[in-house]
Design goal:
Layout (H helix, E strand, L loop, with lengths): L1 E5 L6 H18 L6 E3 L10 H14 L3 E3 L3 H12 L20 H7 L8 H11 L2 H8 L4 E4 L2 E4 L14 H6 L2 H4 L8 E4 L8 E2 L3 E3 L12 E5 L2 E6 L2 E4 L5
Parallel strand pairs: 1-2, 2-3, 5-6, 6-8
Antiparallel strand pairs: 1-9, 4-5, 7-8, 9-10, 10-11
Pfam families: Metallophos
Organism: Roseicyclus elongatus DSM 19469
Protein name: Serine/threonine protein phosphatase family protein
C-alpha cells in the first residue's frame, strides 16, 4: 500500500501547491490513484498565506476522500487564542505566546487582514470578527492522529509505550525529546513533523518530514510503501535511506 504525506506547511501556499503537484505526478507515474495523502499539521503561522492554506485544504478535503489533514500545535494555539483571548492559555507551554515572533501568529492574523500590532484586546476582537467561522470549525474538527498502511501519522510524536488511543492529546502535538530520543519500535512507523530536520530522516521507528518550510526550507512530500520511503522531487522518487 502506498501512502503520501506532506510536512509542516506554516502558511506557505505556493510550497503546498508545489508539493501537491509532486504527489499528483507520482500518482500518474506509479498508478496509485487510491493512495491517501496525509498533511501532518501546522497549517498556520510564520508564513504569509495561512488563510489561503486553510481554504485550500478545506476545498480539497471536501471533494477528495483521499485527503487527510491533522492538527498541529500551531493550529491548536491559533484556535485557543481565538477562543480564550490574548492572555496565555494554560494548555500551551508557558514560554510560548501566540503573537510572539517565536510562534509567528501575527503572520496568520495578517493573512486575514488583521493588524497584529495594536492593543491586544482590540486585535483579538477584530480577529474574531474577521476570521470565518468555517475556518475555525475546520481546524477544530481535525484529528490528532491517523493510521494508514504500516504507518501512524501524528504531528509531533507520541509517548513511548502508550497506545495512541490512550495518549495525552497534548503530547501528540507538543512532545519532543521523550519521543525523539527513544529508539524502541512503536509497532508502526511513526510519521511526524514538529521538529525540523535538514532533510527527510528515516530513523527506522519514526520518519521526520518537517524540513523547515517555516524557515525558508522546502515543504517535503513523501511516498511510503511499507517502511520504505521515497522523497518526491521534480525528477521523481528519491529513496530515503534507512539506518544501517
Amino acid at each position: 500500500m502506498t501512502v503520501y504525506a506532506i510536512g509542516d506547511i506554516h502558511g506557505h501556499l505556493t510550497k503546498l501547491r508545489a508539493a501537491h503537484a509532486r504527489v499528483d505526478a507520482d500518482r500518474a507515474a506509479h498508478g496509485t490513484d487510491t493512495a491517501p495523502l496525509i498533511h501532518i499539521g501546522d497549517l498556520v503561522d510564520r508564513g504569509p498565506d495561512s488563510a489561503c492554506v486553510i481554504a485550500c485544504l478545506m476545498r480539497l478535503q471536501a471533494r477528495d476522500p483521499r485527503i487527510v489533514t491533522l492538527t498541529g500545535n500551531h493550529d491548536a494555539m491559533f484556535l485557543r487564542w481565538l477562543e480564550t483571548g490574548p492572555g496565555p492559555d494554560p494548555r500551551d507551554p508557558p514560554h510560548v505566546r501566540y503573537l510572539s515572533d517565536k510562534a509567528g501568529g501575527g503572520a496568520t492574523l495578517a493573512s486575514y487582514d488583521v493588524d497584529p500590532t495594536g492593543p491586544p484586546d482590540e486585535v483579538h476582537d477584530e480577529a474574531v470578527a474577521r476570521i470565518p467561522r468555517g475556518h475555525r470549525d475546520f481546524l477544530a474538527g481535525l484529528p490528532r492522529w491517523h493510521r494508514a498502511g504500516d504507518c501512524l501519522f501524528v504531528h509531533a510524536g507520541l509517548r513511548p509505550g502508550i497506545l495512541v488511543e490512550d495518549q495525552d492529546p497534548e503530547d501528540l502535538i507538543w512532545i519532543r525529546d521523550a519521543f525523539l530520543e527513544d529508539p524502541r519500535d512503536h509497532g508502526a512507523l511513526v510519521v511526524h513533523g514538529h521538529t525540523p530536520v535538514d532533510t527527510v530522516t528515516h530513523m527506522d521507528n519514526r520518519l521526520a518530514i518537517d524540513t523547515g518550510a517555516a524557515y525558508g526550507g522546502p515543504l517535503s512530500a513523501v511516498a511510503i510503501e511499507g517502511r520504505e520511503v521515497f522523497l518526491l522531487t521534480e525528477d521523481g522518487r528519491v529513496p530515503v535511506p534507512r539506518p544501517r
